[in-house]
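EI: anyone free to look at a 257-residue chain?
SC: sure, send it
EI:
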Amino acid sequence: MRESGEVRSGDRVNAPEKGLSGSDHPITRSSDHPIRKAIVLLSGGLDSATTLLIARQEKFDVFALSFDYGQRHRVELERARQLAARYGAGEHRVIRLYLPAPAASALTDLSVAVPKESLGREPIPVTYVPARNTLFLAHAVAWGEALQAPDIFIGANALDYSGYPDCRPEFLEAFEKMANLGTKAGVEGKLSFRIHAPLLQMTKGQIVARANELDLDFALTSSCYDPSAEGRPCGACDSCLLREKGFSEAGIRDPTR
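SC: here you go
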């Protein structure tokens, strides 16, 4: 896998292909099966890692895209690098984003406390980052247009989630339309962009079970919004509570706990 330097600026699938997990090389195909490229948004968390493996299983040559947007849980970036290398991303880019209003979210303003033991109390909690998935997907489409990779994978979930509006199917459907209307390749009919959200209607327990089927190394993932300096999860933020719920429902031990 080639990793670039820092750049400034839903259906279930079949059983995994034998030998996929742990591979450091892209899937090979015969000459009568052309390579399909896909951009995978890879945060380093459980959902994006599972999505990466689903894209690989669907025989896409994956190009992983992560973002350093000043998040307090920066350990996820190292996890993303490890996941991209472990599971055969053709390239992994980490984009540096300078958000216009970092004080608007607890994830980007260290003076704002991350809520603990409060899952579901607020319709949209303070950990929401304004337009985050809009920004991420826009970068994915831009890279995809340049690579002629119209398939964009995102680990969005609209069942067991914190209520973020940019994880809903309505948003993703609208963004797909926008991508095809707002790109040269789209309006000329050379590419038809598709936003893939294979986890969208799955419970957290189903996601953990699916990841386990795909042999994801759960120890390489980090979900916590407020980890310690050593990367240990707090165990009480929304993301930690949802992760705990998923492993409990799936009957699988979480190696990070």
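EI: The chain has one domain: 2-7+35-250.
SC: 👍
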